[in-house]
Specification:
Blueprint lengths: L12 E13 L2 E13 L6 E15 L3 E16 L9 H7 L12 E2 L2 E5 L9 H7 L1 E20 L2 E20 L17 E23 L4 E26 L10 E26 L3 E12 L8 E11 L11 E15 L12 E2 L21 E4 L6 E14 L4 E13 L2 E5 L8 E5 L2 E17 L3 E18 L6 E5 L6 E5 L6 E4 L11 E3 L3 E2 L2 E2 L13 E5 L4 E11 L2 E11 L2 E4 H8 L12 E2 L4 E7 L5 E8 L4 E2 L2 H7 L8 E3 L2 E13 L11 E15 L19 E2 L8 E9 L1
Parallel strand pairs: 16-20, 26-34, 32-40
Antiparallel strand pairs: 1-2, 2-3, 3-4, 4-7, 5-6, 7-8, 8-9, 9-10, 10-11, 11-12, 12-13, 13-14, 14-17, 15-16, 17-18, 18-21, 19-20, 21-22, 22-30, 23-24, 24-25, 25-29, 27-28, 30-31, 31-38, 32-37, 33-36, 34-35, 38-39, 39-41
Helix pairs in contact: 1-2
Length: 737
């Protein structure tokens, strides 16, 4: 038996060097920070080099005028591997190579033709061949900065100006070599090959001016007024070039392809905003804030390109009314309301007329911002499209008790999102598949809470405990008239992600087990079909009607951390977890089909499934009617047909809860001169060792449940050979001169 997966991985490393120098005098200050990170990934051909620099300076010109500037530069060069359910993924091949196949002990290509793969599976790349012949990289370069001035002509008046600019350059390159499975090149002789190049240029200029008026006494009655103006100009261009049919083996030049396609999208937008904020305080007991912002958007498909966003907040510090004591140090209740008009990114290439999908799925400026990053198929944009409106109300309680040894924060919020911008399905007779329009309402509500306790706190001994609990419920209140659910996306073989009226958002939607009235699985009782033996006899029946299979968001998240300090030593340990969500495990499904999952170990043993036997009929109205015969007593073998033909077609069989508890981090450090003595050239020095992702207990099989969450994709909720999170160990030295 061969271990084909573990040899794919290696010990990675990350080395980070930071340099920081600063100085100040009565006239100003400066700071220079440089950083370099070098990372070798846990799989060959993966890694990163990152360089960043920041220069900041501030100058005091007299007693009333201050000015300063900040400049940032950065470059991130990444070598990566394709993941997910991609037939050229190295994880795909590593997971699916059976133990009877010697992946690492046999040649991965023909000795006379390196493009001809040697592999048992003709529908996927040999992972060793893929490491040599497929290349994937990303390069990001970013420069941004700003200049600011502050002028205080009087104690009650302050003038501020900040102007800045940002330039972002992104390049991506994907090369699928001649003979690769993804390019359909697994032929004799090898053929195809594909090169994808993408470039994105984003430029932004911003200007912000405001004045602050301050009246009264902050310890008694005070009133502050902020008035301001902001201007933001954004211009971006995304270009994707695809070359099909590589003509020269080993090339990375798209000119050496036989067919080339180019796709370009532009996004230009200007926002002019005016804002105001009025703050009122009474004896540091009562605080009232009222704010509003009026925006004018140049890139708008809306009848009204003017959007007003109001905000109001009220706080009451009731501990100020109580005589100072050792029990209640701070007590505050607060409430706020916010309304925001959310505008999606719609690039010029889809701004009018008939569209064949959203172009350039590689860079965000060319996508709609929400709720769908990408929509395939043709659609039109409604002439009456309006912004999505988000209204949020929250109330909170903040307590500090027992000389600040116990702290409690509790917050309840409710967010109503109306005018949802959705792709609404249209009748085929209309000539389009969807209309991008306002429709429906989603409500989010939840609780966020935090507690921190310091049981011991002396000069040389300290113990701090902190915990977090968060729960969020998202519910679809309504969609469009006559529509009960909307398709959001799916990843090839996985169930769909849908928005369903009356259900939580989002949910998995697909085919489940046929069940009786007692929710028990029904197995097929038909021993023969049309005189032929039924190979699915005694095996689960798929419900012919797709249905909701599970909500994706967890019920709640928790975190707990402990920190111990004794003299210069410190130990920090953090656990966290989530409970209640669901996800589709593509890994487990495919591993069962190929006999790689532990559930297939009993494939040669006769078993009787815990179920009832029967089948179903369809009545005159097209409704499915389950017909149950009796308790199941049919003996079957859970072999290849069971997993590849029966269970593979039942989405519910591969959906699992994403519960987990994780030891997120453990860190030990020692600080020299921990009592902050100022003598000596080195003012303070510390050393530390740290471990991250050290342990996990999860209900989700064969993968880390966190890897399936990708907020920029409509395919989150489905796990298909995503790269695992790394368990890492590190250490460092910090010196302060």
């Amino acid at each position: 038996m061969n271990d084909n997966l573990n040899p794919l991985f290696q010990d990675g490393y990350t080395a980070i060097s930071n340099f920081d120098i600063s100085g100040r005098n009565q006239k100003g200050n400066y700071n220079l920070a440089l950083s370099y990170a070098d990372q070798e990934g846990i799989i060959p051909n993966s890694g990163m080099n990152r360089i960043t620099g920041k220069l900041r300076g501030e100058l005091k010109l007299g007693n009333k005028l201050f000015m300063g500037a900040v400049a940032n530069l950065g470059q991130n060069d990444i070598s990566k591997l394709v993941g997910g359910n991609n037939s050229s993924s190295v994880l795909n091949g590593g997971f699916l190579s059976p133990p009877t196949y010697n992946l690492w002990g046999t040649a991965f290509s023909d000795e006379n033709d390196p493009n001809q793969q040697e592999y048992y599976h003709d529908g996927a790349d040999n992972p060793r061949w893929s490491l040599v012949n497929n290349q994937f990289s990303e390069l990001t370069q970013k420069a941004f900065g700003n200049f600011y001035m502050k002028y205080e002509p009087a104690k009650w008046l302050e003038l501020n100006y900040r102007g800045g600019a940002e330039l972002l350059l992104e390049e991506m390159n994907e090369v699928y070599g001649i003979g690769s499975s993804f390019s359909n090149g697994r032929t004799v002789p090898p053929s195809a090959g594909r090169i994808i190049n993408g470039q994105n240029v984003n430029q932004q200029i911003n200007s912000n001016f405001n004045l602050k008026l301050k009246f009264g006494n902050p310890k008694a009655l005070a009133f502050d007024l902020l008035l301001g103006n902001e201007f933001v100009d954004t211009q971006s261009e995304s270009i994707v070039q695809q070359g099909f049919g590589i003509t020269e083996s080993g090339t990375v030049d798209i000119d050496n392809t036989s067919i080339q396609l180019n796709d370009t999208a532009n996004y230009n937008n200007r926002i002019l905003g005016f804002y105001a904020n009025a703050s009122f305080s009474l004896y540091q007991i009562l605080f009232l804030d009222i704010a509003g912002r009026q925006d004018y958007n140049s890139n708008s498909r809306y009848d009204n390109s003017q959007f007003f966003n109001p905000t109001a907040g009220l706080s009451f510090v009731f501990s100020q009314l109580i005589e100072e004591n050792d029990f209640l140090n701070i007590g505050k209740v607060s409430a706020s309301f916010t309304e925001i008009a959310q505008v999606p990114y719609i690039n010029q290439s889809i701004n009018s007329g008939f569209n064949m999908g959203l172009s350039n799925p590689y860079f965000s400026p060319s996508r709609t911002g929400f709720p769908l990053p990408i929509q395939e198929g043709n659609f039109i944009v409604s002439d009456n499209l309006n912004p999505q409106i988000s209204q949020t109300m929250d109330v909170g309680l903040n307590l500090e008790l027992l000389n600040n040894q116990i702290g409690l924060q509790f917050n309840y919020f409710q967010e109503n999102n109306s005018n949802q911008i959705l792709f609404i399905p249209q009748s085929p007779s209309s000539g389009v598949s969807y209309t991008l329009q306002n429709s429906g309402e989603i409500q989010n509500k939840g609780i966020e809470s935090h507690i921190n306790i310091s049981p011991i706190k002396t000069n040389n001994l300290e113990w701090n405990i902190s915990g977090n609990y968060t729960t969020i419920e998202s519910k679809v209140k309504s969609i469009a008239t006559g529509i009960s659910n909307i398709y959001l996306g799916n990843n090839n073989e996985s169930p769909e992600v849908r928005l369903i009226e009356g259900s939580e958002f989002p949910v998995l939607y697909g085919y489940g087990f046929l069940r009786n009235n007692e929710d028990r699985i029904i197995v097929d009782n038909r021993e023969f079909i049309n005189g032929n033996a039924n190979p699915a006899f005694g095996m689960p029946v798929r419900d012919p009607n797709p249905k909701e299979l599970g909500k994706m968001n967890p019920d709640f998240w928790v975190a707990l951390s402990n920190e111990f300090k004794i003299y210069g030593f410190s130990l920090h340990v953090q656990f966290d977890g989530q409970f209640g969500g669901h996800a589709y495990s593509g890994n487990t499904k495919i591993m069962k089909e190929y006999g790689m999952d532990i559930a297939t170990n009993d494939r040669d043993q006769g078993v009787v499934l815990d179920a009832v036997k029967g089948y179903y009929t369809v009545d005159g109205n097209g409704n499915t009617v389950p017909n149950v015969e009796a308790e199941n007593n049919i003996v079957i073998n859970k072999g290849e047909y069971f997993w590849s033909e029966v269970m593979a077609d039942i989405d519910e069989a591969h959906i699992y809860k994403t519960n987990f508890i994780r030891l997120r981090e453990a860190k030990i450090s020692y600080t020299f001169n921990h009592d902050n003595r100022k003598d000596g050239f080195i003012k303070k020095a510390s050393i530390y060792v740290v471990g991250r992702n050290l342990w996990i207990k999860s209900s989700f099989p064969n993968a880390d449940p966190e890897t399936q969450w990708n907020a920029t994709s409509p395919y989150y909720g489905s796990q298909y050979f995503h790269f695992p999170q790394m368990r890492s160990f590190g250490g460092g030295i910090n010196l302060i001169f």
